């Protein structure tokens, strides 16, 4: 009998086919170990008639999850025989891996696609694709059909693995090939990846989100939470260590909830990864304040390779707004959690996300956000003006706050955070920090960039052979968004 795995391998799995999830706890998700060589074999492209290789160019928007999806799609394309190019004019396939979290990100993508139309007209062989979170939105699918018919291929976040077949179909088809699955049925292991960095690697541990914050589109674009098995994650991390990677960032929209669907905990996953030889630093993002358990705090504190940095989005400092956001934490709960974390993990750096101008947010409620920011003293904050998103509950909330007022709130918040970030960086002046060297600065060949365990950017004079090493650097100058320093030469690499 043909099962879904056979269908998938043969590329015959239809859109929307798969296990049906409820909105909360999904049924056990099917896990597929993908034989990518076998799958891709039918879609190899060979060379163009003039002997040159087919070339691809991917533009990535949005979060690290999307950046990492791009690495998977690059892996699939290279398995097909495509080569990467930075120059859009040279590309045979241009792919937009999009983000739907705010409207301005979407506008930017459509602007870019519009600008590529002449290129497409000049070169009928060029294929344009749109994937990622925007592709999951029905409004976007409609817009592409009606206004951007020169887009050749649209696919969503749940069927990335089908890119080789879909691209091949798009090359043969007269019409836009559109395949968007509305839910995920499986997690797929062993996808090929072309990673951007040689020192630091992203590792998915969890897909989707069950939280349904009222402003947020992610649960609709990424589906219900699904955890990878710990043994699959550990195997990937071990392989990365063997390739020479020194740092991993574990990715999920809500990493604290990792494992709930498969009966394991995030804290135990950290403990297991901490034992992988060669991995010096373990980062993770994003943590929700909810379900940040004492055991998780203990695991972060006790695992020497888990860094002292927690990205803990608060969104607002006012409990009424938080309730309307469906954030499940209150101001008091958040402050108590920060206190607990700071007591258990000395020197921890805390960063956050904040939305200003949520529908109906009053000046007094915004003041609560400012006072929380003053009280917590975040090392950094990513701040956004609320943007209504298709089919999310908050898009229907009455909103009497004028845009000018929202912009002014953002400005005031950013000014406050910049002061605090500078002050926190100045506390490091004169101290020696451990830096993982990432590479040369883009503007000056002798200046190298790296990060502290607390994720602060450090620039210093260095040499190429230092890339990938952990080095002691003395901070000589603290700026708002970066530190400058000098290598402490008498010491060798620390680990
Ligand atoms: N899973 C993460 C956030 C992912 S989205 C978490 O829960 O923390 C990244 C950030 O985008 C969010 O933290 C939020 O601050 C912001 N964001 C999400 N939806 C938004 C919207 N509709 N308007 C403005 N900002 C939004
Ligand atoms: Fe969006 Fe909330 Fe899920 Fe984060 S936790 S992705 S903000 S719904
Ligand atoms: Fe954007 Fe999707 Fe990430 S909406 S923030 S790319 S999960």
TrEMBL record:
Domain TRAM: 426-489
Chief place where the protein resides: cytoplasm
Cell compartments where the protein resides: Cytoplasm
Family designation: Belongs to the methylthiotransferase family. MiaB subfamily.
EC number annotated for this UniProt entry: 2.8.4.3
Domain named Radical SAM core: residues: 195-423
SUPFAM superfamilies listed in its UniProt record: Radical SAM enzymes
Residues that bind [4Fe-4S] cluster 2: 209, 213, 216
GO cellular component: cytosol
UniProt enzyme class: transferase
Organism phylogeny: Bacteria, Bacillati, Bacillota, Bacilli, Bacillales
Assembly information from the UniProt record: Monomer.
Residue stretches making up the MTTase N-terminal domain: 54-172
Catalytic activity: N(6)-dimethylallyladenosine(37) in tRNA + (sulfur carrier)-SH + AH2 + 2 S-adenosyl-L-methionine = 2-methylsulfanyl-N(6)-dimethylallyladenosine(37) in tRNA + (sulfur carrier)-H + 5'-deoxyadenosine + L-methionine + A + S-adenosyl-L-homocysteine + 2 H(+)
Function: Catalyzes the methylthiolation of N6-(dimethylallyl)adenosine (i(6)A), leading to the formation of 2-methylthio-N6-(dimethylallyl)adenosine (ms(2)i(6)A) at position 37 in tRNAs that read codons beginning with uridine.
Gene Ontology molecular-function annotations: 4 iron, 4 sulfur cluster binding; metal ion binding; tRNA-2-methylthio-N(6)-dimethylallyladenosine(37) synthase activity
Organism of origin: Alicyclobacillus cellulosilyticus
UniProt keywords, alphabetically: 4Fe-4S, Cytoplasm, Iron, Iron-sulfur, Metal-binding, S-adenosyl-L-methionine, Transferase, tRNA processing
Annotated protein name in UniProt: tRNA-2-methylthio-N(6)-dimethylallyladenosine synthase
Gene: miaB
Chain sites annotated for binding [4Fe-4S] cluster 1: 63, 99, 133
Lineage top rank: taxon: Bacteria
